[in-house]
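Read as chain and fold; for instance:
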Amino acid sequence: MCIGRPLRILEMHDLSALCEDPGGARESLDMSLLGAQAPGTWVLAFLGHARAVLDAAEAQRVHAALQALGAVMRGESPDIDECFADLAGREPQLPEHLRRPAKPN
């Protein structure tokens, strides 16, 4: 399984970027799929490649979800509603193209 992680661009070098995760760890990302981005931009990284540009709030939501997943895997009990605030109090909905058509009456 591949899980995307939010990283903030520190420096751009042609189509690679030096990035930092919210914990301070740094890594180089291939930016071929997104092109050059400004330092400070948040991206979603998969296996060394930037795949999507994120705003700061979305990057924080992804980071909180990954922290919660890690806590659960360690046997801890995080506040799930806080870690998945975008899902709290609602049922997740399938995208329109995956929903079954309504049956005629």
